[in-house]
Amino acid sequence: MAKTGFAWAIDTATTDPYEQLMCIHNPDEDTLVRNLPIPVTPLDQNTKDISLNPERKTSIRIFRPPTELSVTNKLPVIIYFHGGGFILFSGASTIVHNFCQSIATHLPAVVVSVDYRLAPESRLPAAYDDAVDSLNWVKNQALDTLNGEPWLKDYADFSNFFIMGCSSGANIAYFANLRALEMDLEPVKINGLILHIPFFGSLERTESEQRLIDDPYLAPAVSDVMWELALPVGSSRDHFYCNPRLDDGESSGNKVGLIKRCLVIGYYGDPVIDRQIQLVKMLEGNGVKVETCIEEGYHGVAFYDPKTLESFLGKLKIFI
Questions:
Q1: Counting runs of H as helices and runs of E as strands, what totals does the chain give?
Q2: Which of 55, 215, 49 is nearest to 122 (CA)?
C-alpha cells in the first residue's frame, strides 16, 4: 500500500473498505476502532489550541502567518473544516496542520481549524452543531475587544470572513453556511464559502463513480462506508445531509440562494466530481455566484502534490 489521498491507496476496490480504512466498527455500541496511522503535528510559535466545548471535547487550532512576515494590515479570517469522511483526522493531524499553515502563510490569513466530533460516536448533525459553536466563538472574539483571543485581536479582519472545508469538511462548511444565514454573527461578515473537493452522494451511482469504481484514493465502496457511519442511524444516502439536491424544507430554495458567493474546486479523476458539478448547478440555479475550478487530479491531490497545492493557493488568494 502507498499513502495518499485521505486513506491508503490500494490496488483494487475488491478490498474490504473497513480493511482499507484500517477501522473496525462495533455496531452494538456504534463506535469505531481507528487503526490507521495518522501522524500529528505539535504546536509551534504560529499555532495554538483553544477548547471550544469541554463537554463535547471539541477545540480549535488557530494558525497565524509566520512571525517573520511583516503584517501591516488586518488579515482575512478563514474557518476551516478538515476532511476524513466524517470519521478520521483532527485539527492536529499533520495533513490538516500543514495544509492550514500553508494557507495562513501564503495568503496570508488567520485560519481557525475546527476539531469537530467524529462519527459514528457522534453522527451528523453533531459536526454541524460543532460548526455553529465555532461560528459563535468567532463572533464572541470579535465582540470582546478587550479580552478576546490576542491573535484574532491583533491580526483578524472580522469583516472579511470565509467558511471553508475540504471533502467531508466541505460538506460541513456548506451546512454551516446555511445555518449561519439564520444567525446574528455581527460584527463578523461572511464574504464567501469555499468548497474544496466537496463530499456528497446519493443512492444512485453517477457516471464518474461508475468510471472510477476501482479508484485507489476514494473508491465508491469506501464512500458508502463513510456515509453509513456518518448519517443518522437508519438513513440512506438520499438523506439531505448526503444529497443536498433533495428538498428538506429548510436548506433548499431561497435559503440556498442567500449564500453570498462560492468557490468550488474539484478534480476530474475524483469519483465524486459529478456530485460536485451537480452541486454547482444547484447553487447557480438558486442564484448563487459560483466560481468553479476543475483540473486534472484525484481526491486529495492538493495535499500531496506541491504544484497542485500552489495552484490551489493561487485560486484561493484570488477569490479572497
A1: 10, 12
A2: 55
- Tell me the per-residue pLDDT of 64-78, one tens digit each, with 9 for 90 and over: 999 766 667 899 999
**52: Cβ–Cβ under 8 A, 6 or more apart, which residues?**
58, 59, 60, 114, 115, 130, 133, 134, 137
d(CA 195, CA 2): 26
CA distance 168 to 301: 15
Are 266 and 294 spatial neighbours (Cβ–Cβ below 8 Å)?
Answer: yes
CB 54 within 8 A of CB 45: no
Helix (H, G, I), strand (E, B) or coil at 292: strand
Structure confidence by residue, pLDDT tens digits, 111-120? 999 999 999 9
State the DSSP string of 111-148. Answer: EEEEEPPPTTTT-TTHHHHHHHHHHHHHHHHHH-TTTS
Q: Give the DSSP letter string of 172-210.
A: HHHHHHHHHTTS--TT--EEEEEEES-----SSPPHHHH
- Is residue 270 flagged as an active site residue? yes
Report residue 200 as a C-alpha cell. 456528497
| Selected catalytic residue, list 167, 168, 202, 251 | 167
Of 115, 129, 215, 270, the catalytic one is 270
How far apart CA 247 and CA 253 sit, in angstroms, is: 8
